[in-house]
Design goal:
The chain is α+β, with helices and mostly antiparallel strands. It has helices at 22-37, 55-67, 82-86, and strands spanning 2-3, 6-7, 9-16, 41-44, 47-52, 74-81.
Length: 109
Amino acid sequence: MIFGGLQTMWIVVLFDLPTDTKSAKKEYTRFRKFLLKDGFTMMQYSVYMRHSSSDENAQVHAKRVKDRLPDDGEVRIIKITDKQFGKIEIYYGKKRTAIEEAPLQLQFF
């Protein structure tokens, strides 16, 4: 969706952090809590998403994530347009139940 020439974006953070020691678990928890405080929502385990009003806003949040990177593990950041995000296909196995719907994009009236 485009508002005033700005394209809305989604930022997706994927991470694989160790949890094999007490200090590693603490860093994992600290990073996860930071994401939640910064407006990210869990999409699935170790995958968090956040809607941004523009690419510039998405860059701000990507920088915040980079500034909070734990010393160990791996973090990837993907920025996609609202249109691309809308094309995500979700499938569930026969034993899985559907999870809650993704949050709606920012709407203006």
